[in-house]
Amino acid sequence: MAKEMRLLGFNFTKMSVEKNPEFQGKIEINSKMDVADIEKHKPTILKQDTAKIKFSFTIDYKELGKIELEGFMIWLFDKKTLKEVLENWNKKDLEQEIRTQVLNAVLQKCSLQALKLEEQFNLPLHMQMPSVKVDPPSE
Questions:
Q1: Tell me, what's the pLDDT at 6?
Q2: Nearest Cα to 55, choosing from 121, 123, 7, 2?
Q3: How would you class 28 by CB atoms within 10 Å of its CB: exposed for 0-12, middle for 13-18, buried for 19 or more?
Q4: Which of 1, 36, 79, 94 would bridge 99 by S-S if both were Cys, CB 3.0 to 4.6 A apart?
Q5: Averaged pLDDT for residues 50-61
Q6: H or E segment to which residue 85 belongs
Q7: What is the pLDDT of residue 45?
Q8: For residue 35, which of 90, 113, 91, 99 has the smallest C-alpha distance?
Q9: What is the model's pLDDT at position 2?
């Protein structure tokens, strides 16, 4: 059964970019994202408790540089699911369905921000961009 959950807010708390202008060599790109913490959150505008989920997202270019993003999201769950999420997180566990939705939100929001930073700092893109291919005219 699908869990009832909704993303209410997404905020960055850290954006860090490093670039080595002297770098020459083969470019390697590795990325990593993680759920750092989950805690109960009492929003001022809702009567219902929510979950504050802290995350990190890193793109490591080895000797060329690094992008680090951190922040938090506010998720709305039904009471039963929120209780399960908080209890499971005490064991550093997160149900697969919830983990998938949370990490997809991190991936989407952070990838967009990382693309902006990569453009500003002239770093290679961490993901393949769409491109147009022209077929030769048929005779």
A1: 94
A2: 7
A3: exposed
A4: 94
A5: 97
A6: helix 79-90
A7: 82
A8: 99
A9: 61
Alpha-carbon gap, residue 106 to 111, rounded angstroms: 8
Q: CA 36, CA 55: separation in Å to the nearest integer?
A: 5
Both tokens of 117, joined, read 């930073």
Which amino acid does the sequence have at 92?
Answer: K
Sign, CA dihedral 105-85-99-29, equals positive
Tokens found for residue 74: 């506010």
∠ CA 129-68-74 to the nearest 5 degrees?
A: 90
Look up tokens 């902006």; give the residue: 116
pLDDT of residue 106: 98
Residue 1 pLDDT > 70: no
Cα–Cα distances in angstroms (integers) from residue 118 to residues 18, 21, 24, 103, in the given order: 10, 14, 17, 21
What's at 137, amino acid-wise? P
Summarize pLDDT for 18-51 with one digit per residue, the tens.
999 999 999 999 999 999 999 999 988 888 899 9
Token representation of residue 50: 């929510």
What 3-state DSSP class applies to 137?
coil
